[in-house]
Task: structure prediction
Amino acid sequence: MKIIEVKNYQEMSQRAAEYMIEKIKSTPNLTLGLATGGTPLGVYQHLIEDHKQNGTSYAEVTSFNLDEYIGLAKDNPNSYYSYMYENLFKHINISPERTHIPSGMNKDLQAECEEYENKIEQHLGIDLQILGIGSNGHIGFNEPGTSFQAKTHVVDLAQSTREANARFFNSLDEVPTQAITMGIQTIFKSKEILLLVSGKAKQNAMIQLLTGDVTESFPASILKQHPNATIIADEEAMLGVKDNSLFK
Ligand code: GLP
Result:
């Protein structure tokens, strides 16, 4: 696992976006794995600016999002469908048929999970997966304790995850209690992974990730075994790692 330390959120976003743009230019039919949350917003901003200024084309790009809340319709402003549309898709020339986000409204959630996993396989997997990390080490919505073998599945969200995401809703009560997420196996099969980490809230997660064991109780730890995973972390996120005696 390679670590690139950058100064701040802006630099993290720029570095990640530049990397993605290069990949898209060299492989126009790239299959991207996309993340939501606060972390990738700056990256998406850069991609949009670049698309407007330099015309980088997404016409042949396919995307698969990591996850979606159960019970939120596409037009709910807090659905990840809305998030992706508002923060990226409507600003670039990606074709809607090539964007994929699991549906949290399917009556048969098991079938939805299987279909999503199959679709990823039909596309021969994800070329470049963008990830954020939860403060408890979750990736996608794979909470601590999830099997490393898990494929796309339904999860009960940890209370800490619901509390962390309540900032996007009117109240904690409105945050769904379940989600569909790509599994850890699904994510791990990506040919390349870019994990973005910024800010104080992620300091403990970084300590655990960089100094702890590979364990299902800290899902992101599996990335240490991935052949092509890179972390771009900012100074604030790395502060605890540097203070941590294990790392001196
Ligand atoms: C969310 C998402 C994850 C995201 C993580 C961190 O709940 N499901 O994909 O990476 O938690 O979120 P943030 O970037 O807002 O800190």
